[in-house]
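Question thread 4412

I'm putting together a teaching handout and wanted feedback from people who do this every day. The idea is simple: show students a protein as raw sequence, then show them the structure tokens that encode its fold, then repeat with a second protein so they can compare. Below is the first pair exactly as I plan to print it.
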Amino acid sequence: MNYSEYYDKTSPESIESYGKNLIGQAFREVLQKDTSIIQDGLPYAEQNLNYYESLAAKGNLGHLIEKHYFHYEINSDSDPDFKEAGVELKVTPYKQNKNGSFSAKERLVITIIDYMKVIFEPFDESHLRKKCNLILLIYYLYQKELHRLDNEIKFVQLFQIPKDDLEIIKADYQVIIEKIRAGKANELSEGDTYYLGACTKGATAATSIRNQPFSDIPAKQRAFCFKTSYMTYVLNNYVLPGKNTYEKIKYTGDFEHSILSSINSKIGCRVADLLTEYEVSYQKRPKNLESNLIFRILGLKSNKAMEFIKAGIVVKTIRLEPNETLRETVSFPAFNFIELVNEEWDDAEINEYLSETKFLFVVFKKDSSYERYKKEKNYVGMDNHLSLYYSTFWNMPKADIEIDVKTVWERTQQVLLDGIITEQHGSRTFNNLPSSSENRVCHVRPHGKNKTDVLPLPTGGTFPKQSFFLNSHYIRDEIMKLKKKRGN
């Protein structure tokens, strides 16, 4: 069969038009419809069904579409898949959340990072740039209960990175390259950057090891990828029909420097004065008042910052005591007990979250009268005795994730497998999950609405929801370390 009758391999529009015929089909259907090659009386594609159903082919849905729908030979060179048209093909899943919204299920891997070569490649001449200049996105709806071959293709669309996004991606690329040049490829983390990440890539991240320049320390194999948060934004704003309800931050020059300069220009200002300046009022003081205030300082009417959504930036406001100690901890979403015991560390939810997430910590400082007004529930008085102290972007160092967080995760997994032990001391109930005294970085503690907000245990029965928390002294030390480093 001459497939040039169906699409022009030199035309992006023709490739996209032909690709749209995939919409509504499951991958199994695509495979079964390919009768282009007959071997031993059976379609060659049908003979490959067992392979695509096997675990060995996990993640190879892109290869299936390339080989059995577009009919070109799979290659691993630096050129885009459709070389003549400059189009790269990417098959990627999305999911429907419990609230009805849609999000990308995973990051979009673009190309493997060659540590030895990439340091000599300016972004505009790089292997990465060739691969992501124009992408044919094939989105399928992931449904957990189905075999992956039975998931249905829902959208097929060409995507070109918007100009503003490209500037941030270029900056992300440079951050990754500079870390490799510093002999720290082994310390790369997706949390280092905003839209473009350096994710682990290989059959098993632990065994896919590569040499790196400027260091004898081996590094995990990694690939350039668009982060899950960025792909969620692309899905909801360029692929799915709907209205963009996000606000764009107005910034000039370097994104990070511009954001921090705007916030830190208000250091020393009382919250009460900032509320007046930015015309923020309330009848009952909301828990996210300081967070709302930060978005107003950045010129936004809402808390839906386009760049923060794309980059998966999490804003955390923190209150220091008058003596600059910190009581507060930083929490993460409650984990599912049964899912956690079945995780491998490389794919563990807490590992992925901390590796990918960049936080914007905004620190406020109480003065000596703050607690008195808080006790009286005098919100106006509280806001007169709480001032903006500092802000910084932060992502957890890779070593802290791989050593401290992993240790707590392993301990938590073992306790859940062995069975949680509880003890009653007066009105308080204690358990043997990792506490803040066991680890300098994090611990586990309840994170539900109340004692009746429970989840099933792997050993049977239920237990109040739990979450990983970052220790208060760890967060305080990290913030002060950055503050001192930047001379603030």
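The second pair follows. I'd like the answer to focus on this one:
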Amino acid sequence: MFELKIPKLGLTMEEAKLVSWQYSSGDEVKKDDPIFIIETDKVTYEVPAPSDGIIHPVAKTGETYPVEETVGYLAESREEYELLIQEHPSGAGAVEEMAPLKEKKPVAEKAPPGAVPPGRRIKASPLARKMASSHGLNLAEIKGTGPGARIIREDVERALEQREGAAEEEPIPRAADKGFPGKKARETMPITGIRRAIFDNMFMSLSRTAQLSLHTEACAEALVGLRDRLNKQVRGEELRFSFNAILVKIAATALRGHPRINASVDGDEIKVWEQIHIGVAMESEDALLVPVVRNPDLKSIREINRELNELIIKTRENRLLPDDLANGTFTISNLGFADIDHFTPILRPPESALLGVGRIVEKPVVKEGEILSQAMLSLSLTFDHRIIDGAPAARFLKAVKDIVEDPLLMIV
């Protein structure tokens, strides 16, 4: 018999929400099959079966449990499973909730969102399940196009588009939503999980800090040239260098020269951190995550580039762990991919500074009395004016600009 517990996914994790069970009580599972899904304030995670066996949930979904709390059991035989049911009656609620559909009385009503027909388990990613549930879609009616016919985000979006297309001809009620006469919501999304964390953190950021932003532009000719030279050295399966990898190294170098930017407020004290850990904002499905590159001031651009690419893959595949997102001291948010020139980034508490990066664009500039075309890069620094004064912040941003324009300063 195996106890199924809430796993500790990182040093900072203390509890998690039990989102769903992937099997009903009495189902046989294989080793490494995802058997239940948990959610922290940063990530969702599919917990695999430690062995082959028969599952017996004892904890209800939707509840939050501390790390190492037992939420179910895995019996190694049918006899052991029967004993588990008798020894753990407290799990009756969970067992009833997840009982095999063949034991339930048939009903004529339409199956609820995410319902599973008898004898069939729906393969779907955690995000697809959440999207289907929040939009009232039945997973059993969606065709999966992922690996092994697994239902993924694109499948749910396709089903939503089909439903919206069919609903376009339907008249909109005069008072479609209670409390909002004359308006009908296209979709309603609960503020939970990662979105709740973003919701709370952004409100806390603006309500508890005195934020000020400085803006400048840097000539990006040398930056572009450095990236091109680095990519010419790429061999075999080595990953091409990104601007973000170089910018992380540039920011780390500037922070080492201006350590008080690398600080946080802790009650009535200012903590100036010895370590430099730089987060890079990344889009993950319908949320913004900031995985952290640790000690980039001590690493080469090649090492940073490799680590960043690993974090990108984990973000896309929803495999980030809480430790991947913890203990950042500074953040970079690059919106150049979306052709954004300037923007005002918002701090990520408890960090006290964040660098916003726009696109690289050709602009006319005057140099030695002549009008030339140069690649220019916009830079924005948002900082907490409670603990960082304007002049030190300006000097730090100038240091970043100087290194962008002359990357050799990184080795001086």
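Top answer:
Good format. For the second protein you could add a caption like this: Residues 112 and 138 are 6 Å apart (CA to CA). The chain has ten helices and 18 strands.
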